[in-house]
# Entry
Amino acid sequence: MFFYYSKSINEDLIRGQEGVILVLVLLESLGDMMICERCKTPTTPAQDLYHFVECGLEIVYLRSCKLYLCRTCGAKYPLLPLGDSGFYMAIAEALTSKPYALTGEEFRFLWNYLSLAVRENERLGKLIGFHNRDLFKLNDLSSPEAFIASASAKTNDDVLINALLDDEVRQCVARYIGLNDFSDMKKFEKVVALPVSVDAKLRELVAAIVTDKKFHCQIEFNERDEMTICVEMPR
Ligand SMILES: [Zn+2]
# Structure
């Protein structure tokens, strides 16, 4: 498993796109001597709880996450298993066990997860009627060096094809959950509660494709009865 340090807070991170590459190179060259980006003092390797807002959800925490800790300002720089599809699968599955309606933000996380998962998950492609899985250009995850080489070698055509395929996946997901197209999905992006039928279909789809149980998640509720997801990170 390969851990990638990241700092960009956007969905590109989930989707393993170009945004994270430079940061990854930085980590490779610094080794254990990472300098805090906020206060420019050296950080130390540690394992701690990490509030994983980069995934696009406020409710996800990584327990015993390997990270670089700045003891001067408290900043944490996590090492994330972005190349491991089981990682996001675990969060997606935990999310769909929520005992009340999914929010628009959670919906957005799930559709992003599904468009990533379809690259590797044949069953998902079949379920939603997406047949062009083999056209996606995948990053080579066999080593950090291979990842950098393959991710930076993408031509403009590759990027365009991936974007077109992404759109198609989203259309397929939209139809599967009973909507006309992706623009209908966008309407729910900000809602506090998804319509019951859409919510149910989405959960059904995620449940049907979960195979990897490597990452264990714990569901907890705070005093306001809000759910949090704690992912146990590998030691
Ligand atoms: Zn600092």
